[in-house]
Amino acid sequence: MTEPVVLVFDEPESWLVGALQSQGLAPIVVSTREAALAQAAAREVQLVVVAWTRARLAGLDAGLETVRGLVG
Questions:
Q1: What are the sequence ranges of the domains in the chain?
Q2: Taking the complete model, does pTM exceed 0.85, yes or no?
């Protein structure tokens, strides 16, 4: 069973979705913070990842370590 996680993007990056899937997460990609909160509430998601640009995603490895720590 995979853990659902909501991602908010203005530029969806398939490589990040794939990286999260490889960690046993089930990304749900939305484009606004409001949609993310609605998805999180509807699916009882425990983690919401918000990223607006590739520059903010620099250091993906460190980010995935954080994700791993948050979801166990």
A1: 3-71
A2: no
